[in-house]
Amino acid sequence: MKFGIQMFPTDYAIPVTELGKACEDLGFESLFFPEHTHIPTSRRTPWPGGAPLPLEYSHTLDPFVAMGAVAAVTKTLLIGTGVCLVMERDPITLAKEVASVDFLSRGRVLFGIGGGWNEEEMENHGTKPSLRWKILRERILAMKEIWTKDEAEYHGQFVDFDPIWSWPKPARKPHPPILIGGAGPRTLERVIEYGDEWMPIGGRTGALLAAKIEELQGMAKAAGRGPIAVSIFGLGPSPELIESYIGMGVQRVIFGLRPEAAERAIPALKNYAEVAKRYS
């Protein structure tokens, strides 16, 4: 079992460089940063968490800037987005951002992506919420062309460009792993079509997770693919849950860390590390 950490990188929490070094020193495999470019003040769309929206959602640093900073002070720690809101970003620019961080970190990027939940946020970026997954799909397919071709082009309904040159290419070949978040009706289809791994949020798949993992591996086999890795995202330090996930065939547990100052974040991180050591 691999163990990672997820934390909103904010302007008031432990600096990401300090967090990254601590994660590596404590033996964690990976560190993931979520993304929100902004939070519309209308608050029309309810937060899926069910409570008032936490402060960190409107104080989040750009994940790729944060990842680059962490890459500069670590050697082996994998750095990921958890998740990147692809439908809010230009695909040509995003392809370069992902490739640049992967190139500079020597292949340590895990590219987590998701469909998002805040409709006003998407609309401010020109994305119609009902089309977000179709837009995301085309942007990912176009980005794969940019990452893997010296002269890339893509012609779709939402993404359309003639041959271009764009370097650097990612250090990881053919590109950083794409971890698809979510657990909706078509999520597994998306993983099979353009993803490399599945990354559902802990607690939102419930008792159906084992059946979903079995279904995913069956779909992968039918598509001529090998077993697909599964990560559980945003978990607390529960040995009982970890053991149940091991039995289901989960490969990575990503603990959710509150974005707090170092004097609170580091003890919590050490507690997670002690739990993780039981399964190393």
Question: How would you characterize this protein structure?
Answer:
This protein has 280 residues and is of the alpha/beta class. It has one domain (2-277): TIM Barrel. The protein is built from 9 helices and 10 strands. The chain has helices at residues 16-25, 63-73, 91-104, 119-124, 132-148, 187-194, 209-222, 239-248, 262-277; strands at 2-6, 30-33, 78-84, 109-113, 152-155, 160-164, 178-181, 197-199, 229-235, 252-256. The strands form 2 sheets. The protein has an 8-stranded parallel barrel with strand order 1-2-3-4-7-8-9-10, surrounded by 5 helices. Helix 3 links the parallel strand 3 (78-84) and strand 4. Helix 1 packs parallel to helix 9.
Output the structural class. alpha/beta
Low-confidence stretches: none
Relative helix content: 25-40%
Oligomer: single chain
- Domain module tally: 1
**What's the CATH class, please?**
Alpha Beta
Within CATH, the superfamily carries the name Luciferase-like domain
Strand segment count: 10
Do you know the CATH topology?
Answer: TIM Barrel
Written as H for each helix and E for each strand, in order along the chain, the element string is: EHEHEHEHHEEEHEHEHEH
Total count of helical runs of at least 4 residues: 9
Radius of gyration: 18 Å
Cα(first) to Cα(last) distance is 7 Å
Strand order of the largest sheet: 1-2-3-4-7-8-9-10
Shape: globular
Biggest beta sheet summary:
8 strands, parallel, barrel
